[in-house]
Design a protein that fits this description.
This protein is an alpha+beta fold and 530 residues long. Helices cover 40% and strands 22% of the residues. It is built from 19 helices and 27 strands.
Length: 530
Amino acid sequence: MYVIIYDFGTSSVKTCLFEMGSGIELVASATAGYGLYISDDGGAEQDTEEWWEALCQTTRELFIKSDVKPSEIEGLAFCTQMQGTVVVDKGGNSLRRPMNYLDQKGVREYRQCMGRGLIKVSGCDLYKLLRNLIVNYAGSVSAKDPVWKYKWVENNEPDIYRKIYKWLDVGDYLVARATGRIVRTADSAFATFLYDTRKGKEGWNKGLLKMYGINPDHMPDIIDCSDLVGGLTKKAADELGLVEGIPVFGGGGDTTFVNIGAGCVSPGDTHIYIGTSGWVSTYMDHQTVDLTSMITGVLSAKKGYFNYYAELETAGKCFEWVMAHLALDEIGIYLDRVKVNDVESRYLSLYDYLADEVSKVPPGANGVIFTPWLHGNRCPFEDSNSGGIFFNIRVENGKRDMIRAVLEGICYHLRWLLECEMRKVKTSDTIRFVGGGALSPVTCQMLADITGRTIETVGNSQEVGAVGTALVVAAGIKGEDVLTLAKRLVKINRVYQPDASNKAVYEKNYRVFKRLYRSNARNFSMINGG
């Protein structure tokens, strides 16, 4: 059985062709990028035509790289970034550039609605939060949440607002373009915090729509992630290089499927993900919420299950920043010393080379600490003004210390999220580590040492969201339970144990790391608060 999964991230899509049989084989993949347009007003927008062009390019590449024919594809689905806002007309055409999850133009809308009220929790009107908590164990406590993007369009672009037929997330838009059917998956509906998760009441909650001033006509029908939406239209098939009528499944958000691709499918299983963003997530058979730390249980692809999810918005993005702005001089020096061909044969990528260089620096980065808040932060504190800090640089420190400090800072923050989760749920002693960050043995060992937990990695770690989506599609086609299928097919490939000799230095630096926000919150506000 061959299926195509579009792993649709913040800045690029990785289109994966899987063969699903007694195992999971990635037959071919192709990647293409698209823009993320940041503006001074807090905007973070993207272009639907760039998205679709990337899908068309990568889909056609699959059949150049493999012997598989388009007629052999039995299903496809999208695994996408979440909490975007795409407003469309009746034809499914986007009326304006979609707002990415990082977009925070709606700060005024958020403050006008949630910042009022005599009694507040986490800076929000207690009455409104309580109404949300009763309905879905969540609440909008960030200006980056989708509802404020929608309200920003209403308040600032009235001509566009009047033309809206439906309000979608990123994956829902792509499904509509592929099938002609305009729907929302339950997980993306939940991500608006307007969805009722109570048993027997699942769907849009009329009271919340009214409270936030949302036009109910803009809310699409809701389907499950595993549902068959319809067949690929002729137009979409011709553009993608596929066959008309290929079944398109609901799919959903990256957070929805990563636990399945990681094999974390029993209640209490915990995984850590590092891609462009990062998170800690524990699989649950019930919902809970921690408003003080901005953690809630988001819907799983399996109905009745939830991912207790704590997010770091810029994880791997910090390492991308390091590569672009800190590493280039070092790389140039290195390339002067060895033949280019030798570098290419030894290192799969610049990241591999940097990881090797980082390994030459002792744990603790010779006293340098980095905070990974390059686009503000959401959890365990919400502050769009917070930023990255290199702390305690001294004359003897070099660039390699700073690069290692960035990796350690990401791991410190993930430990912080893990400890916050432990206040509400029992996390697993052994943690699955997935995403692009898990490809580096240096980062894996660092995460084990800093968290004090045994770390396991799995095959196809960088495509783990796509793997989880492929398992959902395969389960749907075969009529199997996806959790059982995932447990059978997802295999461990490496195990990392904490090194006790590194505990003292990491404990000391971690204590300082957690103090840096509290010590600098006012400074961030003075510089970035506008």
